[in-house]
């Protein structure tokens, strides 16, 4: 059974949906159970100013993603890179052992979003260089 905190978040998850104008998007898929997580981040001046998520998954995954998006807003990109997904456990409390994969899935999607952000910056820099030539 889910703990009380997971159930509370499930009743009112935060930051669900697509973030229009996101400049960092990361997705992770679980081969074991077909769950999918997608994070959308808006990063301005090196800080996450807004975060949203979409998921195809159960209650624990929804709760984990909701907490992650709340925790990373206001963090610098460097802080997000160093973000310890176990901090989510401090917020949610103990999860069922078979649900630990939810933390890993969210962590991978977040990493993929930051990778996407840096790829977009590289692309913008190359375009800018080409326009100056």
Tally of individual helices: 5
The biggest beta sheet reads: 3 strands, antiparallel
* CATH hierarchy: architecture: Alpha-Beta Complex
| Strand order in space, largest sheet | 1-2-3
Principal-axes shape call: elongated
Mean pLDDT: 94
Give the total of beta strands. Answer: 3
Order of helices and strands: HEEEHHHH
Distance between the termini: 62 Å
Strand content: 15-25%
Unreliable residue runs: none
**Total domain count:** 1
- Topology-level CATH name: Sufe protein. Chain: A
Going by helix content, strand content and strand pairing, the class is alpha+beta
As a whole number of angstroms, the C-alpha radius of gyration is 16 Å
Q: Please estimate the helix content.
A: 40-55%
CATH class: Alpha Beta
């Amino acid at each position: 059974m889910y703990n009380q905190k997971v159930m509370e978040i499930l009743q009112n998850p935060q930051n669900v949906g697509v973030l229009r104008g996101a400049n960092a998007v990361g997705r992770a898929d679980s081969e074991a159970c077909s769950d999918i997580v997608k994070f959308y981040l808006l990063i301005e001046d090196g800080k996450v100013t807004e975060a949203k998520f979409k998921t195809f998954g159960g209650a624990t995954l929804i709760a984990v993603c909701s907490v992650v998006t709340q925790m990373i807003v206001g963090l610098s990109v460097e802080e997000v890179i160093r973000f310890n997904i176990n901090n989510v456990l401090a917020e949610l409390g103990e999860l069922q052992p078979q649900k630990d994969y939810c933390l890993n899935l969210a962590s991978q999607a977040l990493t993929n979003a930051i990778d996407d952000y840096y790829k977009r910056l590289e692309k913008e820099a190359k375009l800018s260089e080409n326009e100056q030539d």
